[in-house]
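Please check both lines for our workbook:

___
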Amino acid sequence: MEKRTMRSRVLTILMAVLTLFVSVAVFPQDTVAAAAKNKAVRIKVSFNGKESTTDKIWDQNTYGISTLLKSKSKVKKNTTVSYKVVVPKTLLKKNGDALLFCMDLNLLEKYKDGSYRGVGSINKTRWCSIRKEGKKVYLGIYNEVKDKDEGEVVVKGKKVQKVGNATIKEQGKYYVITMKDTLRNTYYDYKTDKNKKINTKKSYYLMPEFVIHGDCSKLSGEIYLDEFTVNAAKKQTVTFNKKDYTEVGGRHYGGKDWYSKTKVVNFSY
């Protein structure tokens, strides 16, 4: 499977940060607060089956779930993120179909009028991916910093399989994947368009973004972000089972409006 590094797109990311909290309201309380054993963010995805030979095609097949955390926090070197994502088996159809996942951490400042400004982002070091070959499905890890694969395992039913800091198992109609990633020790500064040393003395509003990319057949379906943790100077976990976040929004890197296609829902698997 061809691996591809997602380069920083300063204007795109910055505009997404600025517009997210202007155009995206908190989900209605009857959706978020309904009694249920488990909740997750459901995002609808649609992949066009084209090979990612250009940034434009890459963006057409890439989606993000952004969650504004409740508490401000300082950041530190070796900040980690971990997440659990649930993927329907129907999203891997043909040989070579692959889905890639990662999480970046956006740093925001808040103005007196309640709006937010993106300062920069601490980006992932690794992607995890699932790939179909014949009757087998593989979970793999790709190190973006070193530009190399770090291993893969074959999915074996309900038995948990592990590679690096990622795990996978089958659960009914789904693949359940967990991943822990250590973020970079620099942040991408939007103002200067440069990577800078992390300021460990300043507190920010944190907005992790879970990213989904499809290098696969022409497919559509739904993917669920079940929970995640950001371990910076302060550890914050979001399960979506309660209002342990401020706001949630979704975006399509290709420019389509994705607000209505991203919701917190009751979800069992």
